[in-house]
Amino acid sequence: MAPKSLFSLTISLSQFTPPHIPSNPNPNPNFPLNSRAPKPSIIICKSTNSQIQSHQPPPPNLPVSAQESDGLGAAAPTRGDVYLSRQKSMEAAAIVLSESKNQRNKMKAKAKVLSVSCYGCGAPLQTAEAGSPGYVDSETYELKKRHRQLRTVLCGRCKLLSHGHMITAVGGNGGYSGGKQFVSAEELRERLSHLRHKKALIVKLVDIVDFNGSFLARIRDLAGANPIILVVTKIDLLPKGTDLNCVGDWVVEVTTKKKLNVLSVHLTSSKSLVGITGVASEIQKEKKGRDVYILGSANVGKSAFINALLKTMAQKDHVAAAARKYKPIQSAVPGTTLGPIQIDAFFGGGKLFDTPGVHLHHRQAAVIDSEDLPALAPQSRLKGKSFPVASVESVPNKKEANKLDGFSLFWGGLVRVDVFKVLPSTCLTFYGPNKINIHMIPIAEADEFYQKEVGVTLMPPSGKDRVKDWPGLQTVRQVQIKYDNQKSPACDIAISGLGWISVDQMIEQTGDFDSASLEKMSGELHLAVHVPKQVEIFVRSPMPVGKAGAEWYEYKDLTEKEEELRPKWYF
User: Is 271 exposed, middle or buried (0-12, 13-18, 19+ CB in 10 A)?
Assistant: First the structure.
C-alpha cells in the first residue's frame, strides 16, 4: 500500500469540466487553437504532503487579447456579441466614409467655384488684384456666386478691351514689351499641351496676310495625331479682283508640302461671313461626338471666327443661339484670350473651346511696343505699293524712278530692303498694313537716314521715347533669286507678322516679246533684307493676288492618287 503522503488520483476531464468552459480549453499554448480538437485524455495529478500541483495561470508575457480573444477568459463574448460588435464597426466605418465623401464633394464644389473663368478671356475670376486679368469686385462676385451665375461674369480687363483699350498681359519669349505682363507665352503654350493626349477635332486658323508667320508649322506638338480642319481667315483683306480659286489652290499646294493630316481647307472672312457655313458643316460632319478646339497663333482672329461661327450655327441650332449671349471678347490686342473658354455650341454633344493664341517670338508683334500693335493690323483691303512707281511725274529724276539698283527701301522702321542687283524691269510690290509708309533712299545714305528718321517718319516704332528701347534692324538676310519665268513673279519675300513683298517685272502691254527682250527679263537678282532680331523672313512661291494673279497662275497637273490624297478646299 502506498504511503499516505503520496496518493494517485485518476479522473476523467469531462467529469469536472465547468459548464462555462469549452470542452477543449487547450491549456497547451504550443498547440494551435484553430486545429482539430483531440479526444479527451487522462490527466494524472500527483501531490505531496507539503504541496499539491494545480493548474497554473498563463505566462505573464502573453498579451491579454491572446488570452481571451478566443474564449479563454471567464467573460468571453458569445457569437451574438461578436456579430453585434462587427455590425457596429461596419456602421461606424460607413459613417466615416460618408463624411469623407461629403467633405470631398464640398472641396470639389469649392474648387469648381474658384476655377470659374471669365467668359470673355478665360482668365480665372479673382477679387484680390484690381489690375490683373479676371478681376471682379467683391460685391459682384458674391452676388453672382449666390445666384450661381459666375459663368456670366465679364472681368474688368475684358470690359476695357471691348472699349478699345490696348491692355497686354503676355510677356516672355513671344510676349509683348510695354504694359503689364501677367503670364508668359510659355505658360500659355503649356496650357494647350494636354490636347496631344486627347481625342479632339482641331480647327487651325491661319491669317492670309501673314500666312507663313501664323501657320504654326509645329502644330503636332500641340494637336498630336488629331485631325485638322485648316481655316484661312481675313480673305476679305486681299487686293480687289483676287480670284479665290487661285488662292485656294495655292494654299492647298503649300499645305500639302508640310505633310499635315488636313481634312479640308476653307477660305473665310469673319467680317463678311464668307465660307463660315462650309466650316460649320465640316465641323458637324467630322466631330463625331468629340470636343472641338480652335487653335492658332496670337491675333489670328480666333475669337472673331468663333463669333461668326456661332452666328451662322444659331440659324439652325438653338444651343448655339443661346451660346452667343456669352461669347469670347474680340480685340486687336494679341493675347486677349488667356485660358481655354468652354462654349456649349452643339446640340448633339461635344464642346467648343476657344484657346489662348500661340505667341511666336519670330513675328513683328513680339518686338514692337504694345502701343504700336494696332499699326500691324490691316483694317481694309490691301493695296500693293510698287517701286519703282508706275508714274514718274512726282519723281524729279526719271532714271532713278525706273531703276532700283543701289537703293534701299524702308518699310516703316521695321524692314529695310537693299537692292544690289536687279533686272531693268524689276518691280517690288509691298503688301501689308496701309498705315505703314515706304521710303526709297540711296544705299549710301540709308544708315544716316534711318538713325535720323526712325520714330519720326519711319514708324513704327513711334515716338522718340520708344526709340530709346528699340533694338534696331539687327538681322540681315541675303536673298538671291534666279528669274527665268517672265509670265509670273519670281517669288514673294514674306516678313513674319507684317506682310510680303512680291518680286515681279514691269511688263508693258506691247504684244509679243522678241528674244532680246526676253533675255533682258531673265537673270539673277540680289537683295539684302534687314529686320529686327528674331523676326523671320520666308522666301516662297508667289501668291496669286489681284487681277493679274488669275492671269499668270497655273494649276498643277495631278495624278489620280495625288488628287485623292490632296485635301479639298472651299469658300
Answer: middle
